[in-house]
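Hi V.,

You were right to ask for the full record rather than a summary. Here it is.
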Amino acid sequence: MMPIKVVLQLLLFALVFTLFTTRQTHGEKDCYRQKLVIKFKCWETIKLGVPYVAPSQECIRLIRRSDMVCICRAITEEDEEEISVAKLLQLADECNKSVPFGTKCGCKYHILYSYSFCSKIVSYIIYVNKYNGVKFVSQLTPFDHHYLRHQGYIHETS
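Predicted structure:
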């Protein structure tokens, strides 16, 4: 029979191993498969580096059935090398599935003024001016700049 000390050590090891290998946190929905389906079915609309394209009816139906908050939380840096979070948020908005203000969507940052940015951009292009507005200095794609201006998040100042 094993001494109690050895049994406790094995139990502790099993607990630590389980904590580090479990992808989901307690209570978190698993929507990684749903995210992959959206990436596939809505690819033409959300792909990075090209202008926004109107979504297909299949894409719209899929977005309307999806939990966009969960999908936003599931977006990784690897996903952001392929898709535009800005386009995904616009798509969700057009399908009446807007992501609430303050929701984490991609990378490490929460949505800023209902719009999500990757940490690589946020860290050096945005600063708050004396009017508590946001000024965008550089590094936005033309699509992102146009979308933000259209939504009223960018106010050109001289």
